[in-house]
Amino acid sequence: MKLRIPLFILKDVGLKIVNAFPSLTGMLEEQLGALGRDLELLDAGIDSGKYMALSIVNAVAWGIIFGMLIFALSFSFEKNLADAGIAGMLSASLVSAMFLVIFAVYPSILRKKDVEEIDAKLIYALNDMVMQVTAGTSLTSAMRRVAKSNYGKVSEEFRKVIELMISGDSQEKALIEVAQKSESEFMRRVLWQLATVLHTGAGLENAMRDLMQDIRTYQDNQIRKYSQNLNFYILVYLMLAVVLPSLTVLLLTTISIFISRGGVIHIGKLALGVDQILIITTVLYIASQIAIVEYIRVRRPLL
Q: What is the pLDDT of residues 100-153, one digit of tens each?
């Protein structure tokens, strides 16, 4: 598995567990077409069924860790094994569900980040290419130089073009083939424009400079959009970090006045003490804040 998921804590062990249940992974793969496409485009080296099963294993592992923590803290306060067990299982279930959702959407986020990386580096690669062609270098040599340079995913895309040319395809055909598979709209436009230049013999410099201007405009719009959304993200973070914890503590403090020590609060069929509820909500608030901070970091435009 080539894909790096920061919160996967049971990668090798998890793969051994997943490989022991091929029928389960096959069933999951049939239901996860969109996820399979994301993993294929990321060259993850794992199919959607195995990835989802591995996600379940890691989500359960995180749930067990938080559940054991809640169990230990709850038992230290209440000295009641049954109530502490209920609190631990409830916390484990909620945390596992939260991590499973994160793992399920992470490949889609990574794919979008790859597209953003291409768009961010493309303007520098185009500028390099225009300078080389203007100086008299052939277009093929300019593409080879970009492919060997450190332009991240952009260099990878041009390396694909060069590899197809080495395998026998014409320059025009290689450019069109890579353009059809590229996820980045601007990368597709660049490759199609290069193919047009080769086919018609038109000038390259003006067309590339127009594309660079379009990319700059797009990046400015992305920054503006992120700045506008950032206010909402900050509001949600403050709600989870300040407002809701304060209200929870105030509510539980008020409720504790009206029940005797060791008394419980009934939530459906569950009977939890004030201390147990406070511990559970504290852990959930912390986990939620970590998730929001990671989401804000991932959503930041790459420039």
A: 888 888 888 888 878 888 888 888 888 888 888 888 888 888 888 888 888 888
Question: In 3-state terms, what secondary structure has residue 1?
Answer: coil
Residue 39 in contact with residue 107, Cβ under 8 Å?
yes
* Residue with token string 């086919």: 199
The DSSP bridge pattern shows strands 265-267 and 270-272 to be antiparallel
> Which tokens belong to 172?
């025009």
Q: CA distances (Å), 64 to each of 24, 69, 230, 238, in order?
A: 22, 8, 33, 28
Render 112-162 in DSSP notation, one character per residue: HHHHHHHHHHHHHHHHHHHHHHHTT--HHHHHHHHHHSS-THHHHHHHHHH
Cα distance between the two ends of the chain = 28
Cα–Cα dist 251/105, whole Å: 34
CB 158 within 8 A of CB 216: no
Mean pLDDT for 191-196 is: 85
Q: How far apart are CA 206 and CA 208, in angstroms?
A: 6
